[in-house]
TrEMBL record:
The chain crosses the membrane at residues 53-75, 103-123, 143-159, 180-202, 214-236. This is 6807_t:CDS:1. Residues 390-406 have a biased composition (Basic and acidic residues). Residues 390-413 are annotated as: Disordered. Keywords: Membrane, Transmembrane, Transmembrane helix.
Amino acid sequence: MTTTNATTSSLPLHPRPLANVSNYDNMVLVFQNQTYCDWRVTVNCENGELYVMIYQVTLFLLLLLTFACCGLLYYRLRVQKCTIFAPRIPGSGNIRPNPIETFLIWEIFWLLGRLLFLFVLKVDLFPNRYLIREFLQAFPDSFGTTGFAWFAVGTYLQIGIHLNSKARPWRPDYRMADRFLLIITVAEPLTTWSLVALNGYVRDSGYSEIGDVLIGAHYALQSFWHSFGAMGAFYFGREICNVLQYHIDVARTTSNLAGARVINLEAGLRKVIYMAFKLCIASSLSLLTNQNNRFAKCCTLLSPHTYTTSSFASYSRLLENKTKDISTSDSTFEDDQTTVTSTTQLQRKQSKFAFVSTKTSSRTLNSIQEVDDYNKQYSVNLEMDELDGTREQTVDRSNSKKEKGYDLQFMDL
């Protein structure tokens, strides 16, 4: 990932104010100045045009899927007279969900959550609240994981009780399914949402180092829960396949059973295998995505050159404000000792924001040099406008500081 080669004329002159955010939190700066980009990892998106288009297409597709799921759920409940939960029978567990109905309900919640998150990004709501945006991005994932778990367990619970006495397939106690559903439905969101909320709170409070640790813990915990869900789906799917295969073998050896039943059972077996395969693939991809986000997030924190020109502009504005404040306060002092102290403070402020360069790409260096020239010119203009009657003195003081080696330098890492 490299910085975008944008001209300085496209840089905004009035940055969005930073409210309750530490000026040294890199990720929050990227989050606020790149509205349509992921605020954890900025992937070469200039002004957000590409991400605007992606979010618009995604919003449209999610709306279609939401209407389709709602229509299918209405058809199942009102027309086919299906129920959300199956009636309890002797020896069964406390939770007996019907697979299709419960899956549709959870997926509708997931779709609505994603719609809300994309809508917030599209209209740029809560621009200075990392807590709200982080929570809106994370909480719908729990609904999606829960929907897959309820579908797998609901399908598994359709097996008749009389098959418990068979040596093959072996079936555990119903309480195992109850525990699995409670863990996925209750424990998973409580743990992940707590970490997400805590991460957003500490970032809004300015503790970016603690936020980095918490966001890594969030990805690790989410990977664990997805692994747990994948193992549960694989286990219950295997048991369903064993039951269907047992019925197929019995039907083939029984002469009074119609051939259509065998064909239907074989078709059902293929569908279950296909669904179990999709669940395993989806869980594996989710694990890889979480680990990739965690790795990319760490790389972004260690590599400021991955930020775009707008991100550099935000840093330059912060430097301009700091330099302006120091220059204004410096004019009120008359003795040499106070001037030395103010100069030392300026050097400390500059050292906190300095970038260290290790790449020698001519294109990147040219882009950074353009931003550097723009920032210097803009800083001088601000000082001349603010200090009435002392314009020449301000420019001379700025030039003297440059001769002493205190001019601001941006270098790319």
